[in-house]
Automatic annotation (TrEMBL):
PANTHER family: ER LUMEN PROTEIN RETAINING RECEPTOR (PTHR10585). GO terms for molecular function: ER retention sequence binding. GO terms for biological process: protein retention in ER lumen; protein transport; vesicle-mediated transport. Keywords: Endoplasmic reticulum, ER-Golgi transport, Membrane, Protein transport, Receptor, Transmembrane, Transmembrane helix, Transport. Belongs to the ERD2 family. It is found in: Endoplasmic reticulum membrane. One of its GO terms (cellular component) is endoplasmic reticulum membrane. It is a multi-pass membrane protein. The chain crosses the membrane at residues 58-77, 98-118, 124-143, 155-173, 185-206. It comes from Tribonema minus. The lineage of its organism: Eukaryota, Sar, Stramenopiles, Ochrophyta, PX clade. InterPro entries: ER_ret_rcpt. Coiled coil: none annotated. This is ER lumen protein retaining receptor-domain-containing protein. The keyword Ribonucleoprotein does not apply.
Amino acid sequence: MNIFRLVGDLCHLASILLLLLKLRASKNASGISLKTQELFLAVFVCRYLDLFTTFYSVYNSVMKVLYIALTALIIHMMRAQSPIRGTYDASQDTFLHVKYAVAPCAALAALTMLVQGFDVRDLFWNFSIYLEAIAIVPQLIVLQRYREVENLTGHYIFFLGAYRALYILNWIYRSFHERGYKHHYVVYFAGIVQTALYVDFFYYYAISKYRGGKFSLPS
């Protein structure tokens, strides 16, 4: 464990908690993409299958369970909990996530297995890596349509992007300081793609904080 991974994990957890806070405090799911949350739940479930087979540490297990449980709770709140479910606008959350995210990432994971050698758990793990890289896309589309971003929603996406950026620093740090560290180019490629998707958002987020006004995205 190094400082970049630790802070990255805490940013990831903070992003989920901020989204929960927004839903509980405002009782409003406006501007939130349910499809992004469903994609992230698929990411966590597929990646953390080792919860049932391998124990690394209490910290590792607790963080994995929290990611799955809290994301499932967010989905439940948006789908079934009144009055929150009545504020979710499905007409703005129209990205076909199964067709344009799940299916291509599954195909890419299968293709990766043809190169690396087939293993069921590795197949799900690679699928989760590819899917996480683009899971934020439905959320970014929703924000682009709403244009004005609520503070807690903006903070949620900022911390989510910060988590991935810190993990890139974690990989760089480990490559220089961890003896026997093995490079994983699938992870590197997906992480860079995922971070790049946040660049435009980070720019307007920083501008809004500097000027002290409302956070709005351009049309």
